[in-house]
Amino acid sequence: MTADEPHEISGDASLLIVDDDKPFLTRLARAMEGRGFDVDTAESVEEAVVKARARPPAYAVVDMRLGDGNGLDVVAAIRDGRDDARTVILTGYGNIATAVTAVKLGAIDYLSKPADADDIFAALTRTTGERAAPPENPMSADRVRWEHIQRVYEMCERNVSETARRLNMHRRTLQRILAKRAPR
Fold it and tell me: What is the pLDDT of residue 32?
């Protein structure tokens, strides 16, 4: 079976999706229900840990950074309740250290945002040893840079001066970048 072929959900189809981006959470939940999962959602670490302890899911999709903490705490809680759970971490702030920690805690994959429902479904249902196909249309370097700037800008609560300081960039340069449309 290749990464492009449709996959099947085997056995228990319970899926916990944890993300503090409500529109994304709603869209992903709908998409996963359409693919046969029994979906439950949570918008915080606290809510997700309570749900994971009450009913450990067979599958989980967990955002790394949540408003009240780190998604790795959710991964650990899921693993404590069910060691065969298949968990995928989503993040816009990927780095090697957190990816390694996520895998050590039991995550089976680590996807960077924006990830679509097909990518997430493939990661959840991929068999052991099966490799993911390289992306058909990866983001351009300009798009990756723009996405990073946007994330830092949001983290700084849309404060241009603070964002420019953290990015080690001149404030006016940042203002020009923010005024432009996103590159493809």
Answer: 93
Answer yes or no: do 121 and 39 share one domain.
yes
Indicate the number of domains in the chain.
2
- For residue 145, the enclosing domain spans 141-179
Share of the chain above pLDDT 90, in %: 38
Q: Are 77 and 26 members of one domain?
A: yes
CA distance 74 to 71: 5
Query: Is the pLDDT score of 130 beyond 60?
Result: no
Are 64 and 101 a contacting pair, CB within 8 Å? no
Same-domain check for residues 19 and 107: yes
Q: Are residues 111 and 20 in the same domain?
A: yes
Of 96-100, 145-149, 161-165, 173-177, which gets the smallest average pLDDT?
A: 96-100
DSSP string over 147-167: HHHHHHHHHTTT-HHHHHHHH
pTM for the full model? 0.68
